[in-house]
Amino acid sequence: MAVSDIANTWDKIRQGVKDAEMLITQKKYNLSMVKSRQVLELMVDYLCNAASFSEEDLASSIDTLYESEWISKTTCEHYHKIRMLGNKAVHEGNDNGYDANQAYHLLSQEVYTFANDYKKGRSGGGPAAGGPAPRGGSSGSGRQGTRDPRARSSAGRNSSRNSGRRSSGSRNSKSQGNRSRRRPKPSGFSLTPVDLIRLGLLLAVVLVIALTVRLITPKKPEEDETSSSSSLPVETTLPETVAPTTTPPAETMADTTPAPVYKTSSALNVRSEPSTAGEILTVLEIGTIVDYVEDYDDEWTIINYNGVQAYVSSQYLIHD
Fold first, then answer.
1. Quick check: pTM over 0.85?
2. Nearest to 3 by CA among 148, 111, 124
3. First and final CA of the chain: distance in angstroms?
4. Fewest Cβ atoms nearer than 10 Å: which of 37, 178, 202, 257?
5. What angle do CA 227, 231, 237 make, to 5 degrees?
6. How far apart are CA 313 and CA 301, in angstroms?
7. Alpha-carbon span 183 to 181, nearest angstrom
């Protein structure tokens, strides 16, 4: 695929994601799911061209990409979910807002992954150089080994370099061993000036501790030898009453309870209002920890974004 065609495909994908989001804000949920499926077809066609194979329908293409290790299992499941929601919108006229939002969020997450592969390819290893790197590791056997012979030659060069380093390291260790054998060992026990200083400091610390303990310990009062034990009543010294431990009030204990930590389960829009029609302030990546404030209602959560309150969809937040 030519570089101009690749750039054109990527521009169509980005524009399609924007169109799907705009249709949701306009409450055109059916058209948004159809647009999400169209963007999915562009991504799958691009990957199939990079892998040099073609299938009769979209479902077979997705399965073949997974079996060929071009996409992960999670990506395969997301692709099928977007495809089924799009089919339901086309053939059954589905106009459900929840389904449209689900299709859009899955698409945003996968386009983000696709974009990372695309950028890597532009630098010499992803779509622009013949497709995103296949999933499933970089071993030299199986489909991956036959797909990229350059990896095997690079592994051979790395192996030769490592063996050279090991041989050089062994020569250095032998040389150091010879030098250590020639070094005479000290005989007997001797104290260096540093050892004497450390010993003196240790004795000084012990002496200071002993004097401190002696000063802190109170002296016993001398007994009156002239007093008679039989004429004076025996005073019984009662033990000091230990003050009961005061349990802090429930409100104080509640104040020390750390605030709950939430993070995003997928790419998530931050809006200025608790509505899909609210202005999008930014898009949080998957796994981003949000500054939780409080729940607005059953569908929206208030967070702190750049010093102001913003709103995110509660269903895409998970408790850490």
1. no
2. 124
3. 43
4. 257
5. 80
6. 6
7. 6
